[in-house]
Q: What sequence folds into this?
């Protein structure tokens, strides 16, 4: 009888642990997806910022070239 109670108790603990593990797995997958989306967004924003900086540099270069042409 005591052996059956211990076995039943262990089975309950195992079932609870499995359910908790499944919840943690789901939560972890959600977090990983969120991190992946965040990384993509950061790359996009970074690329846009670099593109704008390059455009600005190109315009400054063009205006410098034009100014030098006017001087010459």
A:
């Amino acid at each position: 009888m005591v052996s059956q109670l211990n076995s039943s108790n262990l089975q309950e603990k195992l079932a609870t642990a499995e359910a908790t593990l499944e919840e943690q797995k789901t939560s972890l997958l959600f977090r990983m997806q969120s991190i992946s989306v965040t990384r993509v967004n950061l790359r996009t924003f970074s690329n846009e910022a670099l593109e704008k900086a390059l455009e600005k540099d190109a315009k400054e270069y063009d205006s410098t070239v034009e100014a030098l042409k006017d001087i010459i």
In short: The helical segments are 2-71.
